[in-house]
Amino acid sequence: MSDLEAPLVRPKRKKVWVDYFVQFRWIIVIFVVLPISFTLYFLTYLGDVRSGWKSYKQRQKEHEENVKKVVKRLEERNPSKDGLVCTARKPWIAVGMRNVDYKRARHFEVDLSAFRNILEIDQERMIAKCEPLVNMGQITRATVPLNLALAVVAELDDLTVGGLINGYGIEGSSHLYGLFSDTVVAYEIVLSGGRVVRATKDNEYSDLFYAIPWSQGTLGLLMSAEIKLIPIKEYMKLTYTPVRGSVKELGKAYIDSFAPQFGEEDSEKVPDFVETMIYNPHEGVCMTGKYASKEEAKKKGNTINSVGWWFKPWFYQHAETALTKGEFVEYIPTREYYHRHTRCLYWEGKLILPFADQWWFRYLLGWLMPPKVSLLKATQGEAIRNYYHEMHVIQDMLVPLYKVPDALEWVDREMEVYPLWLCPHRLYKLPYKTMVYPEPGFEQQCRQGDTPYAQMYTDVGVYYAPGPVLRGEVFDGADAVRRMESWLIENHGFQPQYAVSELNEKNFWRMFDAGLYEQCRNKYGAVGTFMSVYYKCKKGKKTEKEVQEAEQAQVDVPYAETD
Length: 563
Hints:
Keywords: Membrane, Oxidoreductase, Transmembrane, Transmembrane helix. It is an enzyme of class 1 (oxidoreductase). Its EC number is 1.3.1.72. It is a single-pass membrane protein. The protein is of the alpha+beta class. It folds into three domains: 57-231, Uridine Diphospho-n-acetylenolpyruvylglucosamine Reductase, domain 3 (2-Layer Sandwich), CATH 3.30.465; 235-381, no CATH class; 387-400 and 409-502, no CATH class. The protein has 24 helices and 15 strands. It has a seven-stranded antiparallel β-sheet with strand order 12-9-11-10-14-15-13. It is globular and about 65 Å long.
């Protein structure tokens, strides 16, 4: 038996008090987190409605006034004593799983809480101009009734424009349009000295335009973004196809479910949306969607499934029924399809509230779901936070499409996390070499799914408690993440930095390319004002010495070449 096939034998783990606290955490979630979450969702909705009532001129005027406040705040900073610049957003509010440890050290805060308005929906230019705190639920409420949508709409309601640009954003349409940041037309950025610039791919700030994605807000402060809109229809015609076989065979079936041969781009054959869920090492369900009109959806014999109702089965469990009843097709209202994973937070809801998927809970209390991720983080102490880092996995592995079968095999052996989420995305060959970039020479390999201008990648979403933890065995979460990061570096993969990272600085810059990023930090005065992206993502509280070194940093392109 090869090393790859040999099962890992782990000893049993002794339970500690945190295990019991986590086991009964549902009590706090039901009686504290859910009611407050529902109240906050409702108040946010009212705020969005109020914003929508304002005229374009009024919203733009308020925006310009708020930008001036940001500029003034930056001008007040004393570089010798105030620390590095970051937003005033509380650490627990962010949806990501990083600890936001950089805010536990000395820093200089700039309040961006007012930047939560959709400034304009331009149906002629097919552009939505949004401030950074506009979330996906807010934007779809405004655009879908117009039969318009962002080209890439991330699934969870609370994900914001700023987070998806500065960090990472993907959706089932990314095999056509790339990542969320690839759909941005222009950025409005406040640079370190208070200068406000508009960066596009073909103006004098084109280098900054390409450097912003994945930079975690370390080049400047995002004030607004102009994002591509596409025409849509009222329904999504979704086909659920069960697949069976070995882990590698499941990966190949996923590739074949949507990816044409090299260079082929038949819009009639390529679906509008793609995702696959792998439920265990031998079974999965591939889903492909095409936009459909109301007239088509309501034809006799067609099934309409409004998955957004609170009492409906959770989407991932509904999709799993294809394993027993075979392939089927249904029509889902488009906005409900976009947010299909919100109510159950993919399948994390099952761990948070083990009985929340039961029919009685869905009918009685399902309308309170989901709990806000920010409140879940706010109600956990240091011990529980560390427990989740060790006993839980929330990671995304971005890998070339042809390496998906290998990635699935690796996750099955090293983590045993199921379900797994597979979502493809294009990684474009750009005028600049950005932090994430295709494999050199990919276009010469003529692989399935690739085109001469973009390599097809896939997000392998690994979200749940690992098999060893569920069996009560010893599991070293930090070590598993380190091994995952090493595997990604070896296979030209990338790790989105919303997740907990174990990368040291050298390996961070082996995974990502530093060239353009550091060039822009130097050119636009970010060094010594804004944190570096590694400093911001690094796990653990920053010491005063680290803060001082970052403030006095000299520009250098670290570890630009791999060993």
